[in-house]
Backbone:
């Protein structure tokens, strides 16, 4: 047991976790006084969770999801409707995750039967339908007026409704889901996912059930988005359909590509870069989208491993060491 | 009422069919699922609108737009973006076309306008009257031009040498290469052809929809649904799918619900996939 523990506690791993936790702890110390900064930091945490889920589906299993914003919307509306009805957040959030997971299974099932460009289009259609339902079923969802006044939760008596308090709630989920994500990717499942991405025919030949694992990866990715949505609703204390349009799903994909698809750190880099840069480029939103789309295309053509791939160059050229892999 | 609905369904379906044909041609020639198809339409419509506003006669505006579309959306996109990615996974190309779609519609928004603009009614406003039936000029001319284009595309593919080369590439790339067909050149030609088809579709749709930077999103989506319902790898599948989607949509919004017309199309799509995954007229792919 101790030997296994020693194997696991490599220097690099300890350092990485220490940096990760230190950054999380330092943000409120530095920006704690500014409500807007804390809001952006919390939002970035939520997006990292979403992109992690997407990375599992797209980056590690080689599938595609253009409905990720819709899964996020399902989580957000579940938490919004339940907490507004008086139920606990701690009951609503897991339920939101389960609903997204099941929706992921249902969307995945008909489309995985067929070749995978269909998955792209069916997930896109799913995203459109969810958006239409959220906008038009106003008796339940409030339509475009949305649902205001969503309460923020307590945690064993600790009030998390302050900006810093809620930040730590999201940070807690981020750490938890990062651990879960690493665990999944280093497990039997993760190896099956990567085998499917590399060559699905070969994976099937060595006994990986394609349908089961593809569905699993897709549904877990959806559940991550559901949890992120469930955190987004109390953060904004308000939900409306315009937070979850189809374009948002496209945007998530671009975030992942910019960060590094199929690289564990890609979700973090992508979400942070894409969320922070517009803060510096205020007032030129369309232009910002143009620049980002162009960068994505250039990265796809010349540097498919995204910005995460740049750290490899740093390790090889500057440190003259083989770059570490966060997942096997 | 009923006949008017059928005509308007066919008119809108003809446009979907055109865009969907371009879509299936791209798929057959290069395994590209072009998510920017709708935005190609937007760019063409905006170009045409700009030329018309500059006082260029409409026919010349159309010609210039077609030429620019062929060069930019056909040749440049193929050589610059798709060609370097052609040996990567389908997912990569899909993501690239999504990025391209972002690039196209946000460029329009950033460098042109985010406003809605009314496109001139090029076919005139006074409706045709056949006894008690009143037909919109726009619908009639849309159907005539679209069917003319579809026939021309078919003739080109089946009768001319480059068209036959396209078919050969679609059927078996390796065999086509062995027989001395330049695959890169043929696929580039398909991209150019797609851009031209889309530019014509833009001319037909722009007077109906307003010209706006995001007008392409839903149109592109409809064309994809049409291609999938009819059969992704068949031109006649796209044709059937386009007309079906147009008619289903028109009748749904007239008799059932305007808000949910897209949902009904999607339900039909899922039903088709579950029953016959290749689409109504599609064939099994290797």
Residues:
């Amino acid at each position: 047991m101790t030997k296994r523990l020693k194997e696991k506690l490599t220097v690099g791993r300890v350092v990485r976790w220490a940096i990760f936790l230190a950054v999380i702890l330092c943000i409120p110390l530095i920006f704690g006084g500014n409500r807007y900064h804390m809001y952006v930091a919390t939002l970035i945490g939520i997006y990292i969770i979403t992109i992690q889920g997407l990375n599992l589906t797209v980056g590690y299993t080689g599938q595609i999801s253009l409905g990720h914003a819709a899964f996020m919307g399902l989580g957000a509306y579940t938490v919004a409707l339940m907490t507004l009805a008086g139920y606990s957040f701690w009951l609503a959030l897991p339920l939101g995750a389960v609903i997204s997971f099941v929706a992921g299974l249902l969307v995945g099932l008909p489309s995985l039967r067929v070749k995978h460009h269909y998955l792209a289009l069916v997930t896109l259609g799913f995203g459109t339908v969810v958006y239409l339902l959220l906008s038009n079923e106003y008796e339940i969802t409030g339509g475009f007026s949305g649902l205001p006044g969503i309460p923020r939760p307590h945690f064993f008596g600790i009030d998390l409704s302050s900006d810093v308090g809620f930040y730590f709630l999201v940070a807690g989920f981020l750490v938890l889901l990062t651990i879960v994500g690493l665990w999944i990717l280093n497990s039997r499942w993760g190896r099956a996912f990567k085998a499917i991405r590399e060559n699905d025919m070969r994976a099937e030949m060595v006994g990986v059930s394609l349908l089961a694992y593809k569905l699993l990866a897709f549904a877990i990715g959806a559940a991550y988005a559901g949890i992120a949505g469930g955190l987004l609703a109390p953060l904004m204390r308000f939900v409306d359909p315009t937070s979850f349009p189809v374009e948002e799903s496209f945007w998530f994909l671009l975030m992942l590509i910019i960060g590094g698809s199929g690289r564990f750190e890609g979700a973090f880099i992508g979400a942070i870069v894409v969320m922070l840069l517009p803060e510096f480029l205020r007032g030129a939103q369309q232009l910002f989208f143009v620049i980002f789309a162009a960068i994505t295309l250039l990265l796809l053509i010349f540097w498919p491993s995204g910005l995460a791939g740049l750290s490899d160059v740093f390790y090889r050229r500057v440190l003259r060491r083989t770059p570490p892999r966060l997942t096997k | 009422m009923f006949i008017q609905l059928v005509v308007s369904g066919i008119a809108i379906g003809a446009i979907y069919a055109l865009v969907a044909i371009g879509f299936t041609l791209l798929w057959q020639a290069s395994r590209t699922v072009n998510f920017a198809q709708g935005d190609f339409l937007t760019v063409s419509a905006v170009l045409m609108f700009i030329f018309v506003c500059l006082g260029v006669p409409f026919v010349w505006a159309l010609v210039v737009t077609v030429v620019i579309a062929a060069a930019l959306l056909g040749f440049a996109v193929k050589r610059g973006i798709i060609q370097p990615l052609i040996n990567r996974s389908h997912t990569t190309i899909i993501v690239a076309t999504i990025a391209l779609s972002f690039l196209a519609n946000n460029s329009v928004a950033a460098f042109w306008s985010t406003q809605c603009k009314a496109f001139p009614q090029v076919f005139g406003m006074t409706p045709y009257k056949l006894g008690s039936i009143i037909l919109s000029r726009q619908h009639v001319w849309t159907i005539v031009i679209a069917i003319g284009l579809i026939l021309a595309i078919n003739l080109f593919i089946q009768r001319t040498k480059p068209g036959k080369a396209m078919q050969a590439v679609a059927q078996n790339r390796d065999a086509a290469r062995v027989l001395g067909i330049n695959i890169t050149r043929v696929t580039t030609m398909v991209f150019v052809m797609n851009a031209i088809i889309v530019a014509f579709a833009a001319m037909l749709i722009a007077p109906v929809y307003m010209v706006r930077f995001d007008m392409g999103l839903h149109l592109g989506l409809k064309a994809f649904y049409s291609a999938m319902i009819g059969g992704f790898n068949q031109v006649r599948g796209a044709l059937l799918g386009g007309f079906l989607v147009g008619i289903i949509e028109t009748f749904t919004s007239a008799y059932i619900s305007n808000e949910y017309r897209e949902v009904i199309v999607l339900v039909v799509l899922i039903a088709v996939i579950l029953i016959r995954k290749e689409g109504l007229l599609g064939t099994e792919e290797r």
Remarks:
- Chain A has a mean pLDDT of 87.
- The first helix of chain A runs from residue 2 to 8.
